Amino acid sequence: MSLPDAWTGLVDDAAVFPPGDVPLPDAVNAHVARRSDWYADLVGSFVVTDERIPDIDQPLRLSVVVTGGAGAIAGALRLAARGGHELAGVEIALRDLDDLAGNARRVTTALDTALAEGLLAEDVPAYVELPAVPQESAWLAAADAVAEGGHRLKFRTGGLDAHLFPGSATLAAWIDAALDRETPFKCTAGLHNAVAHTADDGFDHHGFLNVLLATLRAFDGATTEQVVAILDDRDPRSLTDAAAGEELARGRRWFTSFGSCSVSEPLDDLLALGLLEKP
Fold it and tell me: Is the sign of the CA dihedral 125, 186, 16, 194 positive or negative?
């Protein structure tokens, strides 16, 4: 069964990451089983760190999280190729807080070298995670470097600690920066549910439907205040009414996917909100 374009490949399966922490063999088996289920198209790639690639016992479509710096990219790509995996994407976080833009340029150099050596195909996207830093100018300069390199952005929208959850104003600014640079982005962590809410962990979580609608509104010229209001909206009816009047697939050009340690939670929310129907 083919799903609407708005939801196809929306959720990258990050079951092995916290807080899910599913054992790798179990996560792989569950991921493979989903390929034959009716909602198979909802799930994009299987997300794994480069260190764990050798422990995967069957070929998968992988998004590889590089755990080292730019110099570790080539080794990660070789591991994926050795395992016979299809590479869906490369993800790497910038760590040099004193020179984020320079760090981004070093990543671009490493990716360009991998491309020239045949380790990386031209159509495989690279997502560069920019850490939240006090210096807005440094963050924007790094975003410029990512865009100049032809790569994509990755936004961390949650985690195990409060400081990993960006406020709505911060997330709105990140979305705006991506759109200004015509740079697609993905999100990671904290987006298990469609609608913004306070979860059992006590943290205020963003909703993936909020983010998708906010991206559309920002692209269509909404003010920062309007985009923040959409990100803050916790009313499921309000959001589904807004979604009904939108061609949501337009937003997926920019908000490409999000990594989630749960596939069932996003699926259950889409069903409960009437945005998907089970056959």
Answer: negative
Helix (H, G, I), strand (E, B) or coil at 82: helix
Reference 237, options 194, 175, 278, 276; nearest CA is 194
Ordered mean pLDDT values, 10 residues apiece, the chain (279 residues): 94 97 98 97 98 97 97 98 98 96 98 98 98 93 98 96 94 98 97 95 96 98 97 97 92 98 97 95
Structural domain count, the chain? 1
Q: Is residue 26 part of a domain?
A: yes
- pTM of the full structure: 0.97
**Residue range of the domain that includes 203:** 11-272
Residue at 38 is within a domain:
yes
Q: How far is CA 151 from CA 14, 17, 98, 198, in A?
A: 21, 24, 21, 33
Burial of residue 217 (number of CB atoms within 10 Å: 0-12, 13-18, 19+): buried
